Amino acid sequence: MVPPMLNFLTSSDQVTPADLESVRGAMCSAAPVPSTTAKLFKEKAPHPVTFQEGFGMTETLGTHMTPLDDERLGYCGKVAPNVEAKVISEEGKALPRERGESFASGVHRLKELIKVKGFQVAPSELEDVLLQHSGVMDVAVVGVPDDRAGELPRAYVVRSPSSCTEDDIHKFLKERLADFKQLKGGVRFVDALPKSPTGKVLRRELQAVAAKDL
Description:
- The protein is of the alpha/beta class.
- The chain folds into 2 domains: 1-106, no CATH class; 110-213, ANL, C-terminal domain (GMP Synthetase, Chain A, domain 3, 2-Layer Sandwich).
- The chain has 5 helices and 7 strands.
- It has helices at 3-11, 35-44, 123-130, 166-174, 203-213; strands spanning 25-28, 50-53, 114-116, 119-121, 136-146, 150-159, 187-189.
- It has a 3-stranded mixed beta sheet with strand order 5-6-7, sandwiched between helices.
- Helix 1 (3-11) crosses helix 2.
- The protein is globular and about 50 Å long.
- Residues 125-200 form the AMP-binding enzyme C-terminal domain.
- Keywords: Ligase, Peroxisome.
- It comes from Chionoecetes opilio.
- Belongs to the ATP-dependent AMP-binding enzyme family.
């Protein structure tokens, strides 16, 4: 499945633990999986569930996936035998002596990173935190142009029945993330997020909506 599907199974009242009675394993790919969502899914299922995250590309899903014998949320597997990997900068320059791990992980697609005053902000990091708020059922974060900062994060939020206000969202995030990661591009409440047939959030449509607000 993809992250939005996992979020629905976790947060929707239409899905009860009894509906997950037969689940023993789950696989998710296409985009980074919020660790909070994965943990809540495992807790909601009545039986222990092995959770695997895949890299997302059809060609690599068979090898770039969390090993069954070493489950770690937020990682998508180890480097395969006879394969080399390296860490590079945005410009393609090698970054020797940078800290690395034997497990592969990533923050987001490079083109979707939000650049705030020279800092790079991963939408998935903000979304992961926002989904911990009881008033947030679904959320997507995109960058909106700003003359001074370059870009600013903006959240499009689908509220849960418990509801929340924009001030609630700002206060919640301020207590958990650095200043440059705050939603200074604003919060917009929507009935639903635009998604593809497979459930992936269509960020380009949200960016188009944001552009009309400028």
